[in-house]
Amino acid sequence: MMRLTLLLSILFSLSLFSQQISPLNEKRYEDSLKIVVKSHLDNSKKADAYYLLSNYSRNTDSSWSKKCLESGRVLSKNNAFLMAEFYYYNGLYFLEKDKEKASGYFQMAIKELGRFKTEKSDIIQALSWFNYGLIKKNKEGYPFFIKIMLEKSIPLVEKYETSRTLGFLYTQLALTFTYNAEFQKAEYYNNKAIENLQKNSPNSAELFYAYLSSSSNFCYQAKGDKAKNFLDKAEKMIQLYPESSANAAYLYGKTLYLITKQKNEEALPVIEQGLVYAIKFNQNLLAQMFYLNKCDIFRKLKRYTEAKNVLENILKEKTLVIDANNRKTIYRQLSNLNEEMGNSSDALSWERKYSKLNDSLNSENIKLEINTLEKKFNTAEKERKIATLHAEKKQKELEVNKKNSYLWGLGLSLLLIISLFVLFMIIYRKNNKISEQKEINLQQKIKDIRQKEELTLTKAILESEERERERIARDLHDGLGGMLAGVKINLSSWSSSYFKEENTEFSKILEQLDRSVGELRYVARNLMPESLLNFGLETALNDLCEFYTRTDMEVDFQPLNIESTLSLPIQVNIYRIVQELLANAVKHSGGNHILLQCSQSEDHFMITVEDDGEGFAEDIYKTTNSMGLRNLRNRVGYLKGKLEINSDHEGTTINIELDTNAI
After folding, report:
1. Less packed terminus of the chain by CB within 10 Å, N or C?
2. Where are the transmembrane segments (predicted)?
């Protein structure tokens, strides 16, 4: 339950930051903006003030927010830059009301602001890209959002090192890495944000939220003491402003810390205090997060009925469960709660809802994969038929040309057999050379066709293999894993009815079943590494090296210029090649150190694997029937690559060069 709460807390943080952050002294901030709009300053300053007032009040007073937005637009009519700003703030206004409309306004802002080369223009463009990526995250996934942050948003403001927006964006990237369990990367970007903001904006709200981000990152790793250090810094900043809405975020961070330190009784009054702020400032999502933490504490205190009631109220309120993945997770938690309460029928009912929703979420992806595979197959089949007809046509044309040349030569020979004998011989030899050249051309075309067919076949085999790996992984995790979970629930219910006292042997059997479920899901993850799908090739290769590293075997990974734009099929094939090389080195070399170097130069991808083992006989790899080496050659050939193996008593070196434009 703690893991669920923390995951959803990161979702809350991302939602909270999808706007410009107001200063901690909100009352003074609001008053100063109202003074500006009532002053006799020029229209540009008043328009900016109206836009900021609109954003500040959009969650607490929607009608006032809309009125301020319209006032700013009227003042911006004759100013192209201010109209571009209007598109951005209009996107913020619709962010929680109509995400598609908000997305369109952010794109309009990016287009219009691109005409201006100023710091303010770059900053608002960066924030527009950030909010656009945040909207598309649920559909495109976190890799898409991270790509937007690293390639679009952050580069626009990195040249303005003193800007608070740079620290703000570093914090958002850190939160994203925390949510995806990339804690070291999250810590790196949190530190960059804090270093920047402490130096340039030491009293800013951006620094306050950067402290909370670092605290939550360490809470997620159960490192409570480190989390407390940053939480105390945030507390020192917010305690001067007891009326600020930011107190709700601080109290939520404090709740996470107390739960991490297992101080559940102390956390309950903090939650109640946080709910007061969240309700006062219409922070519905944050209020539901407090309730979720409350449920977690009730469960730990064995107050199961109260915990179940809180979860059911969260479902009724619907703020959290609009997202199907959150709803699926809460179904699973309700199943576990009812199991612990001994309500086996309710536990099974919630488990069925979980499985049904999980299957529906997967079915669309399965249909898409099937349609894509079918489309690729039909395209390959048509190309093969066209190539066959083309070859037959060329063959017939060649036969006709040969026949015509022969008849022409024979006619000349009969008419001029004596007087033109020499000329005939010259013509005959010339025609013979032409025929030989055509034959050579034909053979080359046939060879090209065969190579193309072999490439198509290899591609189909490798793609089918990867699809099958993914299907088996999914079936193991969601199918057999769900069935075993149901078996465990039934066994727990049966034991409570037939054993009056705790049965040690039966408890051991349940523990073995739990370990079996864990091992099954571990196997499923290995069949299709999630890090490759979510974070790209370099991260997946780094994880693979860490997997093979042990006390008597060091695996050193050295990446260089690996581009994140490589297509997924290329990344999967490179990953499988490296996986086979490392597996062979670990299993057969007998060495203590393996060096893996991967580098990319334009369309060429180089792989080098060296070990300090005992080596093997020269050219043995050319004659062996090992399935692993056969698969390795197939994948290298599929990417039009070159494979070179050098081995002696001091170790083995394997060099591979691949063409990333092969497919």
Report:
1. C
2. 406-428
